Amino acid sequence: MTQVVNLEMKLGESLEKFVELEKKRLQQIKQFADSVKEATNRVKIEGLKSLENPTTTYALIKRFANGWSELGKFLDKDYSNGKFVVNDR
């Protein structure tokens, strides 16, 4: 029975670490989502004329070319590297 309690303690600790990592991941995703929302709102408010500004256009192209693919890689990140696996042997 002691082994079960010890295992559950280890699992609980691993779960807490996982939750903290997921919170950090969600915060990064939220930051990207906020930047996309801010940019699209700017275009909605100012219209397509806002894209005549080279800085705005560059940011749009950069985000579209790099940001979305980086987000995809970030979301595909695999946590099965053993960091959260509890080995009770």
Structure description:
The protein is an all-alpha fold and 89 residues long. The protein has one domain. Helix 1 packs antiparallel against helix 2. The longest helix is centred in the N-terminal third of the chain and has 45 residues. The radius of gyration is 21 Å and the shape is rod-shaped.
Protein topology:
Blueprint: H1 2-46, H2 54-75
Helix pairs in contact: 1-2
Give the DSSP E fraction (strand runs of 2 or more residues): under 5%
Gross geometry: rod-shaped
Individual helix count:
2
Q: Largest sheet, described in full?
A: none
Helix content: over 70%
Unreliable residue runs: none
The helix/strand series, from N terminus to C terminus, equals HH
Query: What's the rounded overall pLDDT mean?
Result: 86
Rg on CA atoms, Å: 21 Å
Total of domains: 1
The secondary structure category is mainly alpha
Total strands:
0
Cα distance spanning the termini: 15 Å
